[in-house]
Write the structure tokens for this entry.
Amino acid sequence: MLIKRGAEAELRRTEFLGRPAVDKVRVPKSYRLTELDDGLRRSRIRIEARLMAEARAAGVPVPIIYDIDLVEAKIVMEYVSGPTLKEVLDRRGSAGLEVAREMGRVIGRLHRAGIVHGDLTTSNMLWRDGRIVMIDFSLGGKDRGREARGVDLHLLREGLVSAHARATAYYREVVRGYREVMGPEADGVIATVKEIESRGRYT
Ligand SMILES: Nc1ncnc2c1ncn2[C@@H]1O[C@H](COP(=O)(O)OP(=O)(O)OP(=O)(O)O)[C@@H](O)[C@H]1O
Ligand SMILES: [Mg+2]
């Protein structure tokens, strides 16, 4: 059963040894030379799987990886049943503030482990048993710099503003949660987010 067919990846609901699972396949690009394309898809899926493993080791819930197939550029992972954070925030109103704070803590744990996500949106986070499960590390990487971290938070903030009426309050909570985990190191990152936003206004 198809879950999503995007420009980069196709996701299907499936089973792995009797467990509910999701197949994520990086789709071939016909405009690229086949060999080059195969290489890129494989390396991208391998990076995605590695970042998921590192995120888990850093205490960030992610789907369990059941299998990885480099020839098909495919990851088979645990199916996480639960709404996206976008849906949770839409439903909760002001009770979403606590969820937003938890979002900040989870991002802090990722950053503290040297991981940047690259596509932080409330659609790339699922909600299960009162916890956030982070998905879609396909644009992620390893970076401890405040610029990369700032870009991560900036993208999240922009996504909140375009999707949620309470964006300002949510973002404030995200920053609180982030500070709890990152400590004084958070200051430089938050300052960078503001810098990125003022750059946007004048260029
Ligand atoms: N493990 C999972 N369990 C349940 N649903 C999932 C899982 N992984 C992905 N999904 C669903 O599929 C959607 C798309 O997944 P994902 O974000 O990984 O792909 P994408 O945005 O197309 O990826 P990419 O950015 O790599 O092109 C998610 O928003 C989510 O609704
Ligand atoms: Mg996604």
Observations:
- Residues 34-57 form the longest helix (24 residues).
- The two ends are 45 Å apart (CA to CA).
